[in-house]
Design brief:
The structure holds two protein chains of two kinds. Chain A is mostly helical. Chain A starts with a helix and ends in a 7-residue tail after the last helix. The chains are: A mainly alpha, B alpha/beta.
Amino acid sequence: MGKYIEMIRIRFLMMLAYRTNYYSGILIYSINIGAYYFLWNAIYGDKGSIEGMSALQMTSYIAIAWMARAFYFNNIDREIAQEIKEGKVAVELIRPYNYLLMKTMQGLGEGIFRLSFFSFPGMVIVALIFPIAFSADPVTWLLFAVALVFSFLINMQINLLTGILTFFFYNNTGLIRAKRVIIDLFSGLLLPISFFPGWAQQIMNFLPFQGISYVPSMIFTESFSGSEVIHAVLLQIVWVFILVLPIQTLWLIARKQLVVQGG
Amino acid sequence: MEKIIEVKELRKEFKSHSSRSGLKGAFRDLLTRNYKVIPAVNDISFSVKRGEMVGYIGENGAGKSTSIKMLTGILTPTSGAVRVNGMDPHKEREQFVRSIGVVFGQRSQLWWDIAVQESFRLLKKVYNVPDEVYHDHMSHVIDSLDIGPLLDKPVRKLSLGQRMRCELAAALLHNPPLLFLDEPTIGLDVLVKLKIREFLKEMNARYNTTILLTTHDLSDIEALCERVVMLDEGKIIYDGGLSSLRSNWGEGKQIEFQFADTAVTKETLQPLLAEMEAAWTPGGRPNVWIANVLNEEQVISEVIGRVVAAHKITDLKVHEISIEDIIRNIYEEGVKNG
């Protein structure tokens, strides 16, 4: 286990090695949150609530959704694709560790870095500028933390899946981009799922994406009530287990017919 | 002696599609593709004993890298059996790779953005090397490769020679009994090459480390290996001692004469070598002729004596046939007397 924890530390160091990324990231997230804040305020106008969410809940939802994104989002899929394209995956395979687990740990290292140096300070700044409702209930915070862990796992698994597909397509930049847009839209980052038309909500109930952003954000803003919370977290857990299956299958097939490109 | 590597009838086939020509062909390729099965490694068998240093040579595309990748568990063989360190490299990958070290000359295995020592620290954790063993072993490795001052620099700021020495140290961090080196000296200057060779020799003497080395630089092989395995088009065409390669193929010497007399022709020279096993070849420049003779004192002095007595010369050189010439001969002519 030590090696996996060490990997988190290494990723931390790598994030620190590029300071410009760090500062520009804070800027981009602040701009996004600001833009959505004004957009939603304009949409709400004088209305007290839409789809059962008040304007205050809505802005808190948007702010927390972006801050949570800082934790679960990473470019591991693009990294895997690049390592496969450059043949660097060969070097990874001569190491006595599980490649996919190591990649997950790198993602976690990145997530923890962003959460502590990005989301926390960012949240303080945002809370000073915009009115945001923080729950005083420690149970909400705890449930939010649990949901956030699972949202990281689901997003990570989808990234691994997209990355492994490079073994079969050799070049899947398009797929990676499409995946990113789909996740931003269907996970409820841009728009809460309850705002989608009924039929779309039906379909999304059968997809893993809402476990990524919608669930933790709804828990944080206390828009879910008691049993809904439990139900949502259970759904996340189920998806984590379901997604293990295609990843393992594809990984085994890929390893079998691996062609190391170049050299 | 126990065998470290045992390879039997190892084969790796790649499926490659050949594109049809023209626009029409490109559209047809969308629907059906022509596949060709190409054997990159074609039923090879060999074994390596503990402590041996073996040179694994061949032209580009001869199948060296592919076979190394099968030996290290990266690629699955199409057929055949591989046992390395008593394990099946592909099936028991995680367990197996603990017992080997690998250096790919063309790929870095250190983490690009962070200091070398951080990479070492991670690898130490990955291979579960205990602190005392690490300090003992690595302080020696770091000293002999002279990389102490480089440890706190990020890998991207190192020169190629510096990086290569760090790569070597990283591959030996867990002191593996078997080391694969895939073109470790590619693009390095003479001093770094010498240092790396010295170091490998020392590791071999100290820990009895088995080394399998692929390279295009035959001076590496001459400096390190007693045995060579030569590949061509996926097949082993020579497997044996470097010295017997020399004695089978390069038993002769070449004596190069530059004549003062411009009228010298093959016909006028021919009688001088009568009843001796020798032949004249043109030397590439005007008035230069080379006598290919057996490597025996008598013959050499006899030839020189006769030629000098008959013609005036301005220059004389005696060459030993180099390993490179021998190998070029083998590839050009195929193995006849090997």
